[in-house]
Design goal:
Layout lengths: L1 E2 L6 E4 L2 H8 L8 E8 L5 H14 L5 E5 L4 E5 L7 E3 L17 E6 L2 E7 L5 H18 L25 H5 L27 E8 H10 L4 H19 L8 E8 L13 E4 L2 E2 L8 H15 L2 H16 L1 H4 L3 H16 L5 E4 L14 E8 L7 E8 L2 E8 L5 H12 L5 E4 L4
Parallel strand pairs: 6-7, 10-13, 13-15
Antiparallel strand pairs: 1-2, 2-5, 3-8, 3-14, 4-5, 7-8, 9-16, 9-17, 10-11, 10-12, 15-16
Helix pairs in contact: 1-10, 2-3, 5-6, 6-7, 6-11
């Protein structure tokens, strides 16, 4: 962090991903996501608020405001109280209006559930998982339980590590090759928009071990198997539309870069991989779809390709003529570029942060964990997956009336012999 010339408050620049998420922000859209832990006991809101206050001291990069500079937005430390714990709402991940000084980080509770919502400019899912694990540990300690600082639980008595707030994209933008990607337009998979703001959420719960056994039968990981099932569901939707010209069905799959390019950063540090199936080439069996996804994910999950793509993206921001363009013009151009090209290569997003591991002492207090992506830039449904112990939780969330994608998806899992419990916030 640095000291601003206009203010004595600490500030730091937005990373490569944060600049994009801030630029495409509009009054009816924000790139938000939510993690929730469903506890075994009913949540005590007063105790949880104390835990939030203590935890955020260790995570100063989450308690910030976005300010508009002459050339770029930047983060400035927020010295106002909060964020305050709120009772949960029926429509989560509502847009943030940071121009109106809305909190970029929100905490909710309801019955046994503790939830945190994050504007994606702050951090990716991997960074937020550290925050949630530490918060749950502090909350349980406030209730009298002994919870050690292991398995991603940070010590709130330690000073914040400056490396946790580094721009890892800038650090690793050193490849000799700048790798940009040109992708064909994908089938958009959009639907009928709901009234503002209605987020339809459908969750499925399965056994991790059961899903792992089925995935292995196809020679794939759990993520690859589920991504293939999602692609198949969208392919069936496109086929039912009887389009004159079919398009590829492609997923945006965020990959955590930290295992490939070591960094302690809690900010954004992800790379998007695009597994796809082109129905114009002919029909695919499900086993063939899984094979395509499996090999694509393995082929493109390598340090060299990821670093070259990072270098390409960061080099655009370092281009001197672009740096001198005023921020309103840059934001308009980024927004327009995203509308024309940023989301068009993808039919939807599929994300899996992986197993939610915690210290052994915390396990008896948690029932399961949930993850949810907020609304898309276009009216469509997203899919997010997370596991805790033997419970795999899958969330479909979107601002569309149709349910055909999630219905086909869960129907396929059942056909493969998996037991699925489905819940939804839909009224019908």
């Amino acid at each position: 962090m640095a000291a601003s010339s206009q203010s004595s408050k600490p500030w730091f620049r937005l990373d490569n991903a944060a600049k994009m998420y801030s630029a495409i922000q509009r009054k009816n859209y924000s790139a938000l996501y939510r993690f929730s832990a469903v506890m075994k006991e009913k949540v005590d809101p007063e105790v949880l608020q104390r835990a939030i206050d203590k935890t955020l001291v260790r995570f100063p990069g989450f308690h910030v405001k976005i300010k508009r500079g002459m050339f770029w937005y930047y983060f400035e430390s927020d010295d106002s109280p909060g964020p305050f714990l709120q009772k949960d709402i029926s429509n989560p991940c509502q847009p943030v209006r940071f121009q109106n000084k809305d909190q970029l980080l929100r905490f909710f509770y309801y019955e046994n559930r503790i939830s945190v919502e994050v504007f994606h400019a702050l951090a990716d899912g991997a960074g937020t998982v550290y925050l949630l694990k530490t918060l749950l540990a502090v909350y349980l300690r406030e209730l009298g339980h002994h919870i050690p600082c292991t398995d991603g639980v940070l010590d709130i008595n330690d000073p914040p590590d400056p490396e946790e707030w580094e721009d890892a994209y800038a650090r690793y933008a050193t490849s000799r090759v700048r790798l940009g990607f040109g992708h064909n337009k994908a089938y958009p998979c959009v639907g009928t928009p709901e009234p503002f703001y209605t987020l339809n959420v459908t969750m499925g719960f399965l056994s991790v071990e059961e899903v792992r056994k089925v995935s292995r039968q196809y020679g794939a990981s759990i993520s690859e198997y589920l991504a293939a099932a999602l692609i198949e569901s969208i392919l069936l939707r496109q086929r039912r539309e009887d389009r004159r010209k079919e398009r590829p069905v492609a997923l945006a799959v965020p990959i955590n870069l930290r295992p490939y390019l070591p960094s302690k950063t809690l900010r954004n540090f992800i790379f998007t991989i695009r597994p796809s199936i082109d129905p114009r080439l002919g029909d695919y069996t499900f086993r063939e779809i899984v094979s395509q996804v499996h090999h694509h994910m393995r082929l493109h999950s390598n340090r060299q390709e990821m670093q070259a793509a990072i270098t390409h993206n960061v080099s655009l921001q370092r281009y001197l003529p672009l740096k001198l363009v005023p921020s309103p013009v840059k934001n308009f151009a980024l927004n327009l570029g995203y509308r024309l090209a940023g989301s068009r290569p993808f039919s939807t997003t599929f994300t899996n942060p992986g197993p939610f591991t915690v210290p052994q002492e915390m396990i008896p207090h948690i029932q399961h964990v949930e993850v949810m992506l907020g609304q898309s830039y276009a009216p469509r449904v997203n899919c997010a997956v997370i596991s805790f112990q033997d419970t795999l939780e899958i969330t479909f969330a979107g601002t569309v009336k149709e349910t055909d994608v999630e219905r086909e998806f869960f129907r396929h899992l059942v056909k493969d012999g998996l037991h699925v419990k489905v819940t939804s916030n839909r009224k019908e």
